[in-house]
Write a structure and sequence with these properties.
Blueprint: E1 3-4, E2 7-8, H1 9-35, E3 50-52, E4 62-64, E5 72-77, E6 80-89, E7 92-101, E8 112-118, E9 124-132, E10 137-143, E11 148-158, E12 161-171
Antiparallel strand pairs: 1-2, 3-4, 5-6, 6-7, 7-10, 8-9, 8-11, 9-10, 11-12
């Protein structure tokens, strides 16, 4: 048996395997720690499950993990409060979006609001939401007859500041 610095080749292989195993376990623990479990900073009515969503120039918002058939979905994005309501109607779905200040819930008119909708069939649609002054919200009608989950990204431009939120709903 050949020895290298007092160890056999078998012992050296065993130590290398042990070192690699320790490194793999350490990396796995670091990955799990990085994921963490923080407290969400917003609420979603009728749904307790939330996941992060993508935003631009503001802290992350959230989106419900379990889409709603009807009801208000609310998220906080930095200093903004976003509310989304999808109401089924004959021939489609009425999309109502409330853009408000987080602190006082005052409506924010004059923003550019676009909805990017993915239908249950995978079709992508883009809708411009018009501001309804009496209702103090943005609205559009989505022609839709297909049942299933619709995913909606609301893209908002408030005087150059991008504020985005992700929502989902089911049409039955």
């Amino acid at each position: 048996m050949s020895r290298i610095e007092g160890h056999t080749q078998g012992e050296l292989k065993m130590w290398r395997s042990l070192k690699l195993g320790c490194i793999a376990v350490s990396l796995g623990l670091i990955g799990l720690t990085a994921c963490g479990t923080g407290e969400p900073d917003s609420t979603v009515l009728e749904s307790e499950m939330e996941t992060p969503t993508e935003t631009t120039a503001t802290p992350p918002a959230t989106t419900p993990e379990k889409p709603l058939t009807q009801g208000v979905q609310e998220i906080k994005v930095g200093p903004y409060h976003l509310e989304f309501v999808a109401l089924p109607e004959p021939g489609g779905v009425q999309l109502d979006f409330y853009l408000q200040t987080e602190e006082t819930h005052e409506a924010i008119p004059g923003a550019t609001v676009t909805a990017q909708v993915e239908t249950p069939t995978g079709e992508q649609r883009t809708l411009e939401l018009a501001y309804d002054e009496p209702g103090e919200h943005y609205a559009a009608f989505l022609p839709a007859e297909v049942s299933g989950e619709y995913k909606v990204a609301i893209l908002t431009d408030i005087q150059g500041e991008k504020v985005n939120g992700r929502f989902a709903f089911n049409r039955e």
